[in-house]
Amino acid sequence: xENRTAFTPALRPFxxxxxxxxxxxxxxxxxxxxxxxxxxxxxxxGEYLCLASGIGFWIYDTETLTPRALWGTETGKMQVATFxxxxxxxxxxxxxxxxxxxxxxxxxxxxxxxxxxxxxxxKNILHVHFSLDGQRLSASGFGHSAVYDWRTNPDVPxxxxxxxxPKLDDxxxxxxxxDRYFPNALSSDGNLLAYVSSPNTVTLSDINTGEQIAHLTxxxxxxxxxxxxxxxxxxxxxxxxxTVQVWNIQNESLETAPITYQGKRxxxxxxxxxxxxVADIYKGKVIIWDSxxxxxxxxxxxxxxxxxxxxxxxxxxxxxxxxxxxxxxxWKAGTPSTRVLYFDSNGPVYSVEFLQDGSTLVSSHWGWxxxxxxxxxxxxxHRIFPSVTERPTLRRTVALSPCEELLAxxxxxxxxxxxxxxxxxxVAELTGHKYVIxxxxxxxxxxxxxxxxxxxxxxxxxxxxxxxxxxQMPEKELSEFPKGAIVARWAMGDIRVAFHPDGxxxxxxxxxxxxxxxxxxxxxxxxxxPLPENMEDAPxxxxxxxxxxxxxxxxxxxxxxxVLLRSIAFSPCGTVIACxxxxxxxxxxxxxxxxxxxxxxxxACRQPCALAFSPCGxxxxxxSWWCGTEKVPIQLWKITTGECIHTYWGHYTxxxxxxxxxxGTLLASGSHDSTILLWDLxxxxxx
Length: 687
Fold this sequence. Notes:
By secondary structure, this protein is mainly beta. The protein is about 5% helix and about 50% strand. It has three helices and 57 strands. It has a five-stranded mixed sheet. It has a four-stranded antiparallel sheet with strand order 1-57-56-55, with no helix packed on it. It has a four-stranded antiparallel sheet with strand order 2-3-4-5, with no helix packed on it.
């Protein structure tokens, strides 16, 4: 079958490279980070890379290594994105179970298909393939595979296969769940589908008749990659370890004995003349093999610590691999060396904080990447802390001292490490927690408060780095939560802390239904903040009429959700304390501990997990966890009136943290989608 005429995608000019301004949501002036990189695919001719991320999919030119387009930002949450053979279309699969096709001539979505998986939390589409003529499209993920004649009848699959009650543990290995299990492959003529039908079996089905024509076994389980040979006679598979096998489809038998390679994992692809190539990925190198002859074709050293994202081009002439220091290394057959492009993927954002002069934003990310210092003017990182190549393992929690000289980070084994930022030297190491989940320096810089998963709060004297107090959050019997309440078990030990501006008081919330305040100097418990059970408990209920109605009928909110407090903050002047819980934000008078106001939140913002007061104290920004909407809202509330003055829509999943710039003109929002958005506040706030 001959390929049709190749299309050239309609891309941005080569000189338009400021990706921080591409496809921004309304009200945003910049996006820091390009989203979590989830998949890499080459175009069939090898001229472009398609990079699926949590905010859409990016197209890069492989010759110049420059970004050329960002599409799909309306929906985001891409798990995979792949070109058709003629580059006219790109198919994407997302975590919500939607298969979409995009026209590369204008970047528009022309088809959306509900993939059909009914398993909650298991809708992720992990594999997508076009047939050679572009007419058929296959998708697979957790125990489900389907093929669509997407151009003529996208609503009904022409083939669909679902496993009965698959157990994920049967399809992963050594605790690894990040590789792409439940793969599928389409034959070049688009008539055969290969898919995983059990941990030990790959089944081939005739798409036109639905007949299962072969069951291929004899390989180590589980398989994470499948590829048809160009002639259609063979099917190659690679498992979650480093074993590769080739089946003879006609004989339903292994063509060759399985070959186990020595690296950590492998990727496979066929050349046009039917040679199977294998990329054997080690910790510090990649070896490209001719599998049939067992000859090494090339070896190149890795430029960093390799992630799970790696891919051959369709003709096996190129290979790309992503490293967790944000580099994609590209190998091309017949060239003396590899090339590297930079993709700004730093992992889910846990915290954001402006330095006092407003010129720099510090962000903390889940994982090892370190703490990033962003130049607001250039919108680029001017520093990664620590700067060494082999960084120590830093987890998600970070605290910056008010003098901006010290950085506290949590590390493995529950330790807290105190760093001198200028010299990048370790000042102190604090022990006592099993896991650290929150830290804050006092505004005076005299104390550091840390919270652990066992419900403990430690107050550290910064001068001597000695533990001054141990404050135990009251225990809550797990039996009070409904059996099987996942959210309750997750929240056990999840503590948030906030300091009063004078540095003498600290407020903390945990999984239970109370917010408590302590005197930091003495360790004395000062007060427990009351929570409203109904509208009569608050002098003012503000918000949208529909959400206020929930306050009139609190029984509509499950008890397990009502008691979970999610965020807490003091106003800059210290007179108001704000706390978020399901469907509402509670405002207390800090002096009397009496409720001032309850702000009822809309359905889309019902889990207020990030709060930030404006520098003037007159406004409160509220960010939510994802609640089923296409995008997650950030709302601006005027404290004096309880009025929502604006809602920003931009992130695709949980808002983890919010921070106002010192002059009150910018709001930074950090999200689990691995990006930070900078929002222009000038039209709405008079700071």
